[in-house]
Write a structure and sequence with these properties.
By secondary structure, this protein is an alpha+beta fold. It has helices at 2-13, 17-24, 70-83, 105-113, 180-186, 192-201, and strands at 35-45, 55-56, 95-96, 117-128, 138-139, 150-158, 162-171, 206-214, 220-224, 228-236.
C-alpha cells in the first residue's frame, strides 16, 4: 500500500491542477478481509485400532544457567533481539463461539454413543484471515482447556484458497504390564512399586497429527491419525444466499 501511495504522489506532481483535483477524489479500494467460522471436535480412539508409526521424541529441556549468569546472557542477546524484531502481524480478530452456535452437536452425540471414539475437545471460533506468512498459529488453550496429554496449535490462513493447518500431539499412555512369573524365572527381585517407578521415569512418547488441508465452504473435514483425530467445519461469514456450499474457500482463480 505504501508503494502505491508514493507512485500516486509522484504522478500528481506532473499533472495539471484540474487533473490533480480529479485524481484526488479517487478512492483506493482496500483489499477484502474475509472472516470464517470454524468448529472443531478433537477425539481419540478408545480402542487400539492401530499401532501407528507417527511418533516423535519429547522436546529438549530448556538450558539452565548457573546463578548470577542469567542477566549476563540476557544482556548479550538483547541487542540482537531488538534488531531482529519482526513487524507486528495483522489482527485476526479471533472471537470464540458460544455453545448455542455450534453446528456439530449431533455428530458429537453420535461419537459419544459409539465405543470407538472418545471426544476430548469441542470448540469453535470466528476470525479474519490473512496470508500464511502473516498468520500465527493459535495454541489449543486459546480455544478451550485441553486434557493434560494433548497439546498443539491450529492455523487458518488464506492464500489462493483457504487452508487449515493442524499440528497436534498426544502423549502415549505408559505401559504398566508386569509378568511376575517371568520375573521370578529371570531372578528379577524388583517389587511392583520399583517397576512402576521405572515406567514413570521413562521419557514420554507422543503421537503427532500434522496436516495442511484446503477447505470447501460448509464441508466437514477429517484429520486422521491411527491414535486420534479431528473433525473440522469451516464456513465463510457472509449472507447465506451469497454463498455456494460447494465453492472452494478463498479468492478463486482470478
Amino acid at each position: 500500500m505504501l508503494r502505491v501511495t508514493i507512485s500516486l504522489l509522484a504522478l500528481l506532481a506532473f499533472l495539471p491542477a484540474s487533473a490533480q483535483e480529479r485524481l484526488g477524489d479517487l478512492e483506493i479500494e482496500e483489499p477484502e478481509v474475509r472472516r470464517y467460522t470454524v468448529e472443531v471436535i478433537v477425539f481419540r480412539y478408545a480402542q487400539d485400532v492401530s499401532t501407528g508409526s507417527e511418533v516423535f521424541p519429547p522436546d529438549e529441556p530448556p538450558v539452565t544457567l548457573p546463578p548470577g549468569e542469567e542477566g549476563i546472557a540476557l544482556a548479550d542477546t538483547l541487542p540482537q533481539l531488538v534488531e531482529a524484531r519482526p513487524e507486528p502481524l495483522p489482527d485476526t480478530e479471533l472471537v470464540l463461539l458460544d455453545a448455542a452456535d455450534y453446528q456439530l452437536g449431533d455428530i458429537l452425540d453420535r461419537m459419544r454413543r459409539l465405543d470407538v471414539y472418545e471426544p476430548v475437545m469441542h470448540f469453535g471460533w470466528t476470525q479474519a484471515t490473512w496470508p500464511e506468512e502473516q498468520t500465527a498459529p493459535v495454541p489449543l488453550h486459546r480455544f478451550a482447556r485441553p486434557p493434560r496429554e494433548l497439546d498443539g496449535d491450529i492455523t487458518l490462513y488464506l492464500s489462493r484458497f483457504l487452508h487449515l493447518v493442524v499440528d497436534l500431539q498426544l502423549e502415549a499412555p505408559k505401559v504398566r504390564t508386569f509378568n511376575t512369573d517371568e520375573q521370578e524365572r529371570l531372578g528379577d527381585t524388583r517389587t511392583v512399586g520399583e517397576l512402576l517407578g521405572e515406567v514413570n521415569a521413562q521419557a514420554p512418547v507422543y503421537y503427532r497429527l500434522r496436516e495442511d488441508r484446503i477447505l470447501k465452504n460448509g464441508e466437514l473435514r477429517y484429520f486422521d491419525h491411527p491414535k486420534f483425530g479431528m473433525l473440522a467445519k469451516v464456513t465463510r461469514v457472509e449472507e447465506e444466499e451469497a454463498s455456494d456450499v460447494n465453492e472452494l474457500l478463498g479468492y478463486g482463480t482470478e
